[in-house]
Every structure is written in structure tokens, then in C-alpha cells.
Amino acid sequence: MLDDTTADTIRAFNRFYTNKLGLLDKGYLETPYTLTEGRILYEMGARQSVSASELNRDLGLDPAYLSRIVKKFREAGFIDSTSDPSDKRSQILRVTARGQEVCDMLGQRSRQQIAGDLAGVSEGDRGKLIEAMRTIRSILDSSSQPAGPAPVILRPYRIGDMGWLIESQATAYAREYGLNEKFEALIAQVAGKFIADFNPQRERSWIAEQGGKRVGSVLVADGGGETAKLRLLYLDPQVRGLGLGRTLVEECIRFAISAGYARLSLWTNDMLTAAIRIYETAGFKLVSEERHAMFGPECVGQTWELDLTEAKLSTP
Length: 316
What we know:
Elements: H1 4-21, H2 35-47, E1 49-51, H3 52-59, H4 63-76, E2 79-84, E3 87-95, H5 97-117, H6 123-140, E4 152-155, H7 161-177, H8 181-196, E5 204-210, E6 213-222, E7 227-235, H9 244-258, E8 263-269, H10 273-282, E9 285-292, E10 299-307
Parallel strand pairs: 7-8
Antiparallel strand pairs: 1-3, 2-3, 4-5, 5-6, 6-7, 8-10, 9-10
Helix pairs in contact: 2-5, 7-8, 9-10
């Protein structure tokens, strides 16, 4: 049973968003049309040709109400209509050139309204807003769920990414391996130095996204001379086992080669067996190791190196 707090929270949000969009205004987007009329025009403009019965079904309209709006639009020259051969009780509605102009005008005003609402919102908060909207729709509308997992894309670093990486990697490794706050401090130190000293000719970072959500990262830092360092490889648990780790490592190798490095070096710990398998597959060799307890549990720190002239890369 739905509790009162949940119901009141949803009702409060509905009131806020209704007012934000101006849905109770006399004219939708400062036009002579109602919200329902604007929605019907949009659907007809997007589809070009649609039956009245389809509009009733998709928009949940009363047939008599839709019939009155169709008559109004026909008289205004926005649509033409013919009998639906598959349903004699329905009509096929087609938007005219004049009607398309109105559709385009409504679309432009809607985009302007959204741009105005987001004018003072940061890029990071815009991402959170879009993700929240996707979450609401996926929960309340099962038909919006994709047939399969969303594709993973790689993009460069943006402001806010390092904060996400520090939190995600620190909490994941604390949960999975019992590492303490000293490990979080190390990640923060590496990330901060990378941002502060970033050299685009010698350094690069990648953020992996799936459905607008950050799920992985890696970066190449200048290690001095002919050596590059692979740092902060991280995969969210939901994308592990999909080959994304290998893809990120190969991006690092390709960049290091193109930047003129002779070697790619990394430091890791022996409990990270999945990552170590990726390094070994890519041709990295273990060059040194030492026992330590810097992050709480005793483990073995390992340094691996790849001779970039012997790098093993799959076809991009």
C-alpha cells in the first residue's frame, strides 16, 4: 500500500512540474492553442499521416473531444482528412503545409522554453536532470525500456568526472577488498595531479558511459622521458566481463604509441586479478613487486611495463 509521504511527495512534484511547464496557462507556449491541441499537432507533424483511432489510442483522448479538435484544425487549414479504409468509423489525418508551419513553431518555442529553464543550470546538473528523467520513465513506463543494454561510449574528461572516479573507485575497493581511506587519498592525489598538470600532447583520459551513466575510466599520464603511466583503470560492477577493460587499456596503448612513448608502465595490487589478466593479455610484463599494508590489508604491489614496440592490439 502506498504510504502518505510517498503520495504527497509525488503530488508536490507534479504540482511543481505542471507550473514549471506552464501547462495550466490559458495558451500553450503563449499561443492560442491548448496543451492538448499542441500535442495533437505535434503528433500529426511528426507522423505526417495518422488515423484518428491511433491518436485516440496513443494519447488517451475521448473520441468526441478529438473529433471537435479535428474539425477545428480542418477549418483552419492545418489538416486534410479522408476516410480510413481499414476502419470506416475513423479518418486518416494528414498535416498540410500550413499545419506543418504551426508544428514547427510550437517545437521551436518548446526548445526555447527548455533552453531558458536550463540557462542557469551547470553541465553536471543537466546530466543529473536527464538521468533522473530517464529513471522516472524507465520505472513508470515499461515500454520505454530498451530491448538490450545501452551501448557503451568513450569520451574525454569533463569537469566533475574525477570527483565521480575518486568516490566510485574508493567505495568499490573498500567494499570489495577492504581498502581504507589511504587508498582514497592516493586516488585523489593522482587525479588532482593529472588535472593540475595536464598536457594534451602527452596525456589523455577516457570516461566510459552507458545510457548517460559513467561506468568506467582510465588515463595516461606523463611518466617522464619515454615512459607513460596507465593510471586509475576502473569499471563499474555492472559492466565488468564485457570487454570494456581491454578496450580502455588498448586506447591507452594506442595513445601512448601516437604520443611517441617507448614504454607504458602501471602500478597495481595483486588482488586485482581481473585487471592483471587484461594487462597480461595486452603484453605487459611484471618487472617488480613488494609487500605492503599501505591501504589496510596486506597485499603485494606490482609494477608492470609494456614495450610499446611489442604491443598487442586488436583491430580498432
